[in-house]
Structures are given as structure tokens and as C-alpha cells.
Amino acid sequence: MDAGVSYSSRVYRRPDGHDGDDNADAKAGPSQNCIYLQTKAPDNPRLGVVLPAEGGHWIVSLAGMRGGEPAPGEEGFARHIRQLRDTCVGDLLAGAEPVGPVRGFLPGPSLRRHYERRAPDGLVATGDAACTFNPCYGQGMSVAALDALALRKAAERPGGIGHATADAARSGIDRAAKAAWMLSSSEDVRFPATTGGPTGNLVRIQHRYIDRIVASATTSPTVTTRFLEVMSLIAEPSTLFRPAVLTRVLGGFRRH
Fold it and tell me: Which helix (DSSP H) or strand (DSSP E) does residue 227 occupy?
């Protein structure tokens, strides 16, 4: 599937008075100068991220799905900032000095290869060779780590390393990608210009429930924690249907 995502990034020098994580007082907590401004499907497919970096810098990354891609160059970068759903990124960068050029990145479509169904004997593919994701969701390296755990588990099977090991590893690697693929692909199809991906009533119900979870997460620490665990791939998606989350999400539904 292909959401047509593209990126533009630039490094800025933080202005005086904006300490980053490398200078933050541990007792005072982490720096607040970090922004992740999400897209708003389907009418504004643009996002912006500002992250503190070493040496008193910010890394600023802008992205857009098909139809909302950042135009190249400085002018396109500035225009994309103005087109974000909120002015917070532009406000933060108002006094910041760029220290490098605008660099673009086109990651290409998301692709899941089912080597567990058919592959040459002994071949095991991991990481992007097995499954690539829309990088907006930050899943690729986490899934690659889960792939490594699946490979180790397969290699520790009794009987030594052989074709059965490869079969077990391919199955484990497929399971490692399943939740991440479901989460990212179902979100990408919110954008009408996306090609491929899941469709149907189940996806629409999932969208409504995720919207309720995100809304509840702004007021419920429990929902926030569980949602971040699922999105960070350290908990199964079924976590979002446990009573502690379900009661808060559906309770909010009744109130609204």
C-alpha cells in the first residue's frame, strides 16, 4: 500500500532560553521543546516534528501524505510549516536559525512480504527485507528488533540450525510484523489518496474506536499509558480492549 508520504528535514540552532535534553536539569524533568504535530485525516494530511538534538540544535522534520507533500527547498519548507493544522511549530521556530539545507526523503510504499508462505529453503529475511512501513509511525526499527528476537528463538530450538529453523524464524518474523502492519495500514487508509490497504466496515469501526481512545488519552493517564504501549509495540493491540481502558473510552462515548 502507498500513502504517498514524503519528508523534508532541516537542522536549526535553538535560540537562547530554549534548553534541550542535553542541557536539561534531571530534577526539573525533560525539556518541553519537543513537538509532534499529527496529521488530521482526511482534510490536512501534513505533520511536523521538532526534536532536540545535541549541540544546542533542533531537528525539524515535515511530512505529508499524497496531496500534502512538502514542496522542495526553503520556500516549500516554510510554506508547509504554515499549512500545518496548528501554528506551534512555526511559533517555536520564529527565533531559530537554520544551520543546514533542507533535505528531502521519499520512503516509497509500504510492503509486507509473506516469506512464511513461500521461500527458498534456508532463506530468512528480516527488517525492511520482510516488511516496510510508513515511517510516520516509527515502527521499522522496533519490528527489526522483534525480528531478531524471533530469529534467536528459532535458532535455540533443539536439533541444531537447519531448514526447520528457517521455517520457524520466518513464521516468528511474520508474527512480529502483524500488529505494526495492522496499526499503520489501517491508519493510512484514512487518507483518500492512499492506494491499497484494508477496507470495509471493520476498518471504519476501528477508526471510530481509535478516535475515542485518542480523545480519552487527553484526560486519562491509564488510557494514555496503554495507547503508548501499543503504539510502541511493547503491548498487544488487545490491550486497548481490556476493562481498564474500555470502561474509560466507552464512558466518554456516553458522555458525548
Answer: helix 221-231
